[in-house]
Amino acid sequence: MEALRYWDALRWTVYAAVVMPNHIHALAQPLMNQEGKAFNLAQIIHSVKSFSAHRINRGRQKRGPVWQDERYDRIIRDEPEFVEKWEYIRTNPVKRGLCEKPEDYPWFYQKED
Question: Which of 2, 4, 41, 94 is the most exposed place for a label (fewest CB within 10 A)?
Fold first, then answer.
């Protein structure tokens, strides 16, 4: 979660995220850089994966890849779709039997307004 939130408010806005035992979900929007272009999503995700892989490997005292090269990103087109994705992320640990309420899951984050 620390790696996901590292660039929050600097290169992207993280609205919701959950770290599951074998994957993560994040609802995020790249911010604009000084040239008026959006920060590159692939570069942000590479940074998150690289940082977290190094930390995980250090903790496990292992070397090698942690994450798959793939990612599945989607463009959210409207408010109902945003809410749908938010709810999917929120309830994922509950659906998997990891907690009773999303707020009880230690690896769940949602942006508070």
Answer: 2
Give the separation between CA 15 and CA 57, rounded to whole angstroms: 27
Under the phi-then-psi rule, with left for phi > 0, alpha for psi from -120 to 50, and beta for the rest, what region is 31? beta
pTM value? 0.88
What six digits make up the tokens of 83?
């809410």
Domain 2-110 has CATH 3.40.630.30: no
Asked if 103 contacts 93 with a C-beta cutoff of 8 angstroms, the reply is: no
pLDDT at 30 (0 to 100) = 96
pLDDT tens, 12-29?
Answer: 999 999 999 888 999 999
